[in-house]
DNA sequence: ACAAAACTTGAGGGCACCCTCGACTTAACG
DNA sequence: CGTTAAGTCGAGGGTGCCCTCAAGTTTTGT
């Protein structure tokens, strides 16, 4: 869309940038629920200005995460390039959750429903596309539990979100056990 | 302990009971974070009375959950009675999470740190004792992944808590995959 | 039946977060 | 420059939850 009405005034553009930077940092550090006031403070901007640019929290989310979720595509491509279907899937999961473990906000995004940030939902769907292919390949190769589906991956993602949150040192181990259970 | 100072006045004893009932119900339905006001309302008692009997949320937790956690002992005993070490462990996990899935408050209790409810912590430790024995048995029998430990069970429990919360229909399936991954 | 002790009540103060809006400031354009 | 539309500011009102305490009520023991 980019309905480029009138362009932003210089100071406004600057503030918008500062807000995005602050929100990006704070989401990553503290998750999606940081108080709006904190974002404004870190951006050195008043709370009123914050609401002028981003009337709802989801406006922040929608402005920040689609970009970040593009990394999903990258790890998806990487996995698709791997010839061994099992290695491809296992590697994908490892990369996916490594990414999730480094950004608390991303962790939240992948866990929650975000009905007001359709761009984010779309980006997730795109990511899921790759995952679906990887699963199909592994199924065809007969290396993956025959009843596995993309829905199981959603469940796993939420479980991993929790594990990452309260034992960031353990997620690889937990994942490796689960992945063992996935073999045909 | 039971430092039976003077016994409670009749009306006070009645109110205490009503509060416990209300809290038990609401914790199970909504989790440990229900507003205190809701508990008071359901108990048909004023908020002041609530605070007289249970000055902190953890006083409720400490009064309610040790009993409930006694069920852990029961399923522990049941599992210990099972001759096959693998079946014993797998059955234990199934029973444990079935229990957890029926009580949102219990789910919270098993997920959180509760430094102010030592009775609850103690009850959990007792439960963990059984689990430890089941794990040792399975290890000795060589049917369980050699590096498995009780710490992994704590991680699993938090993961299951999450799965139970947002996909109550899927936890058995998720668990069964994980358990597959546990085999030696 | 009465007084003292025990208990109950709910208005209200505190806090953290949400968000709005009218008064002020400043960039942009002639 | 001067005008004005665009943008900024932050005090303050709203909400939901926490918890307290002075005034009123009920139980208990005599």
Automatic annotation (TrEMBL), chains A, B:
InterPro entries: Homeodomain-like_sf, HTH-type_TetR-like_transc_reg, HTH_TetR, Tet_transcr_reg_TetR-rel_C_sf, TetR_SbtR-like_C. Gene3D superfamilies: Tetracycline Repressor, domain 2. PROSITE patterns: HTH_TETR_2. Keywords: DNA-binding, Transcription, Transcription regulation. Residues 13-72 form the HTH tetR-type domain. Signal peptide: none annotated. Residues 35-54 bind DNA. The keyword Nucleotide-binding does not apply. It holds the Pfam family TetR_C_43. PANTHER family: HTH-TYPE TRANSCRIPTIONAL REGULATOR BETI, HTH-TYPE TRANSCRIPTIONAL REGULATOR RUTR. This is TetR family transcriptional regulator.
């Amino acid at each position: 869309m980019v309905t480029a009405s009138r362009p932003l005034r210089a100071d406004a553009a600057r503030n918008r940038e500062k807000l995005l930077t602050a929100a990006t940092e704070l989401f990553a550090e503290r998750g999606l629920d940081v108080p709006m006031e904190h974002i404004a403070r870190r951006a050195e901007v008043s709370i009123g200005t914050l609401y002028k640019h981003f009337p709802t929290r989801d406006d922040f989310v929608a402005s920040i995460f689609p970009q970040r979720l593009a990394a999903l595509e990258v790890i998806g491509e990487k996995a698709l390039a791997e010839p061994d279907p099992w290695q491809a899937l296992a590697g994908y999961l490892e990369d996916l959750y490594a990414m999730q473990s480094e950004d608390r906000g991303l962790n939240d995004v992948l866990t929650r429903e975000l009905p007001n940030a359709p761009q984010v939902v779309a980006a997730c769907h795109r990511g899921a596309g790759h995952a679906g292919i990887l699963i199909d390949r592994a199924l065809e190769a007969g290396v993956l539990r025959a009843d596995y589906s993309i829905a199981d991956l959603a469940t796993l993602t939420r479980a991993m979100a929790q594990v990452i949150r309260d034992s960031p040192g353990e997620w690889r181990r937990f994942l490796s056990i689960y992945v063992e259970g996935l073999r045909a």
